[in-house]
Amino acid sequence: MDEITLRPRFSETDALGHISNTTLPVWFEAGREELFRRIHPAMTLEEWPLILARYEVDLKSQMFLGHDVTIKTAVEKLGTSSLRVYQEAWQQDRLAATGRTVLVNFDYSSQRSRPFIDSIRARLTDMLMSSSDDKA
User: Under 8 Å CB-to-CB from 121, ≥6 apart: which residues?
Assistant: First the structure.
């Protein structure tokens, strides 16, 4: 799994002092940046090949300001023209949230999905989760 570490900001807390539930989708998107680079190394918006089809976040435990958060990211399933991304948010050695995102390789001019080419599939191979990977 790819990993990034984030330092929560005060603006990401809610009135109870927890990390806001609206923050997790933003953090998970930041955790997908390496995946984006593998699919589209130029990272140009004019030729952006992905569209978000679905995301879900499951909150497992509270998170707080003052402690770093590690976001772990892997490809759970690689289909013909889409992929399902699995992510975890960890704080103080505790699994705090999980997320799944479905991204579609998309041709904006035809408004249709398109298959991933072999070179992109090859760049994603080492991000694929094995059946032995432990997930919540």
Answer: 78
